Amino acid sequence: MTVTLLITGATGFIGSRVAAAARRRPDVRVRLLTRHPSGPASAAAATVHGDLTDPRSLHGSCTGVDVLVHCASRIGGDPEGVAAVNDRGTKALVEEAVRSGVRRIVYVSTAAVHGRGPFRGVRPGEAPIAPASATSATRAAAERHVLEAGGLVLRPHLVYGIGDRWVIPGLVGLLRELSATLTGCAALQSMIDVDTLGRATVAAALSPSLGTGAHYVNHPDPVPATELLAAVSAQVERPGDGATIDVATASARPAGSPVARHHLGLLTVDHWFTDDAFWKTLDCSPGEGFARTFPQAAPWYRSFLSGH
């Protein structure tokens, strides 16, 4: 039986991997929701026009669709623009999916809806929704719309790989500001490479066994901040000619860029979310861990950061 799957955000970092994974499935007919019918996405799959900031444009977008995988999110920018896409846009899209008889709705969200932690071995349902930014608050609102419609929410934490412009670049930016690498970081971070996340999202969308609700989607083994820092320094960029600085000294320095401050907080506070049931339920492997997958993306990071 062929399943028609509609993907939003298919030109983005995560959505493009979801679309690629879906195209590899012979039992899936892929459609992409795009604001630009003649754009690059339209050359690779059937497309339907729709703009999350214009609810009227979404009418008819889900006709004939079995599964909706919603990967489109606006990250940063003015609060009104973020809310228009993440909150109101998702609400309108979900309403259209329900009206069209879509049998499964999947939303790729973020563990950032819980705020800044600490989180150590947290399982689904154990942490409150307490977003610390306007972006995370609107994504939490998007989650509510999906869950109220009986949908499935996937919450990765740190997503890395080719195309990542936030996790590793933000960490490099912090180390550049410090002109040194950090010592004394003992925090654990849940992480997943973007290609595995793409495969897992499609598997979740098609699984008859995975129920509704929210799940954490990260590699089962959290990454110690010391390992993350060592990999970045050795394979991407070594700051300050090998100089080091401890966390206390770094934290006492005058405030730098908001991204750098945010990444310093990540390195010093546990963000470890666990959900073994997710991987056991799916016919999908979490793949190899950070130590094996990060080197594959390191050349891309070096090239990208050389111009920044």
Structure explained in plain terms:
This protein has a domain of 206 residues: Rossmann fold. Strand 1, helix 1 and strand 2 form a beta-alpha-beta unit. It has ten helices and 15 strands. With 308 residues, it is α/β, with parallel strands linked by helices. The protein has a seven-stranded parallel sheet with strand order 3-2-1-4-5-7-12, sandwiched between helices. A two-stranded parallel sheet has the order 6-15. It has a two-stranded parallel sheet with strand order 8-11. It is 39% helix and 19% strand.
What topology does this entry show?
Layout: E1 3-8, H1 15-23, E2 28-34, E3 46-49, E4 67-70, H2 79-99, E5 104-108, E6 119-122, H3 134-148, E7 152-155, E8 158-160, H4 167-178, E9 181-183, E10 188-189, E11 191-193, H5 194-206, E12 213-216, E13 223-224, H6 225-235, E14 244-246, H7 247-252, H8 258-268, E15 271-273, H9 276-281, H10 290-306
Parallel strand pairs: 1-2, 1-4, 2-3, 4-5, 5-7, 6-15, 7-12, 8-11, 9-14
Antiparallel strand pairs: 10-13
Helix pairs in contact: 1-5, 2-3, 4-8, 6-10
Mean pLDDT across all amino acids? 92
**Any idea what the radius of gyration is?**
19 Å
Main β sheet profile: 7 strands, parallel
CATH superfamily of the domain at 3-161 and 190-220 and 272-287: NAD(P)-binding Rossmann-like Domain
**What share of the residues does DSSP label as strand, in percent?**
15-25%
Head-to-tail CA distance between termini: 48 Å
Instruction: Give the helix/strand class.
Output: alpha/beta
Under the CATH scheme, the architecture of the domain at 3-161 and 190-220 and 272-287 is 3-Layer(aba) Sandwich
| SSE order, one letter for each helix or strand | EHEEEHEEHEEHEEEHEEHEHHEHH
- CATH fold topology of the domain at 3-161 and 190-220 and 272-287: Rossmann fold
Helix content: 25-40%
Instruction: Using the coordinates above, name the CATH class of the domain at 3-161 and 190-220 and 272-287.
Output: Alpha Beta
**What is the helix tally?**
10
| Total count of strands | 15
